[in-house]
Design goal:
The chain is of the alpha/beta class. The protein has a single domain, classed as Aldolase class I (TIM Barrel), CATH 3.20.20. The chain is built from 13 helices and 13 strands. The strands form 3 sheets. It has an 8-stranded parallel beta barrel with strand order 3-4-7-8-9-10-12-13, surrounded by 5 helices. Strands 5-6-11 form a 3-stranded antiparallel sheet. α7 packs parallel to α8, α8 packs across α10 and α10 runs parallel beside α11.
Length: 346
């Protein structure tokens, strides 16, 4: 059924379809009989799926990655899809429109998405208003934070600190996003000195709270092993809670979509199947190099239950979906949770 629905939707502009789908999910959620039917189809609840991670109790280890619900407007409806946690954002201090449209494209032959959204969001105060208004208080919420496009890198830490302080009462964990390829010069913040400084300042502010919250760093799949080694050193030195592996890639290698078509789409990061293996390799590498001491959430190219199991086997504790959710629908969340349940019950 979803494949037919997807076939129809994929005939239209990707960004417009996104807003249509989340609007439809909201309508389903508001109508109690439809909501109950939807939940019965996709939500898997069982004590064996619950997992304690970074001091938080997750109802299941399958989450929705940042970028899908940038402004925290759809948490209640998305929870009906069976997710154990939802990451909002990327949120910046001030509202910004993002990059010019079109900026979201499907690479159907590769089961991938190319985006150059550019941190389009309504700003941190708007996100807070939505977080206050949500009804579902059980689902874990992550806050993915970034800098405004016009903020120079020398002042970027102030943007992250602003978002951290504002969102602190309303989210359960934080994600520092310095790995998006769609904000000019943002990835330069992944270099050792600026990244270490940023994380130390966030940790200092975190320690001032009566109950500090986990801070994770989201890294790019395009890092070399030597750069990953530096990330491991930084995580160890700053004592942040862990990593999210990995963001979108700027690589265009090995794609089935014709090069001319990709060139016409333009710049942006690619998510989905093309990053499946690389993201899993990175999780495994970090797990081995850190002797299993760095907690990780894995994201990137999870389109099947086996993809999720592979990332968990590589060393991740939780997984996140984005492109796989678009291509496979909420049945993917159910399939992963069922596979995990079967594994536990054997």
């Amino acid at each position: 059924m979803y494949k037919l629905f997807r076939f129809v939707l994929f005939q239209f502009d990707a960004e417009k379809v996104h807003y249509f789908v989340v609007g439809l999910l909201n309508q389903i959620h508001r109508f109690a009989p439809a909501r109950q039917l939807f939940r019965s189809l996709y939500v898997v609840q069982h004590p064996a799926l619950e997992i304690n991670f970074l001091g938080l109790k997750f109802p299941n280890p399958v989450g929705l990655a940042a970028g899908f619900d940038k402004n925290a407007q759809h948490i209640d409806a998305l929870a009906d899809c069976g997710f154990g946690f939802i990451e909002i954002g990327t949120v910046t201090p001030k509202a910004q429109p993002g990059n010019d449209k079109p900026r979201l494209f499907r690479l159907k032959a590769d089961q991938a998405i190319l985006n150059r959204m550019g941190f389009n969001n309504d700003g941190v105060e708007a996100a807070i208003a939505q977080l206050k208004a949500r009804h579902n208080r059980q689902i874990i919420i992550g806050g993915n934070i970034g800098k405004n496009k016009w903020t120079p890198n020398e002042e970027a830490a102030n943007d992250y600190l602003t978002c951290f302080e504002a969102l602190f009462p309303y989210v359960d964990y934080f994600v520092v996003n310095v790995s998006s390829p769609n904000t000019p010069n943002l990835r330069a913040l992944q270099e050792k000195e600026p990244l270490q400084d940023l994380l130390l300042r966030l940790q200092e502010l975190n320690k001032q709270q009566s109950q500090p919250k986990p801070i994770l760093l989201k890294i790019a799949p395009d890092l070399s092993n030597s750069q990953i080694d530096e990330i491991i050193e930084i995580v160890t030195y700053t004592k942040i809670a862990g990593l999210i592996v990995a963001n979108t890639t700027i690589s265009r290698e090995g794609l089935r979509t014709p090069a001319a078509q990709i060139e016409q789409m333009g710049a942006g990061g690619i998510s989905g199947k093309p990053v499946t293996l690389r993201a899993t390799e990175m999780v495994k590498y970090i797990h081995e190099q850190s002797n299993g001491k760095i907690p990780m959430m894995a994201v990137g190219g999870i389109h099947t239950a086996q993809d999720a199991l592979d990332k968990l086997a590589a060393g991740a504790t939780l997984v996140q979906l984005y492109t796989g959710f678009i291509y496979e629908g909420p049945a993917l969340v159910k399939a992963i949770n069922r596979a995990l349940l079967q594994r536990v019950q054997k």
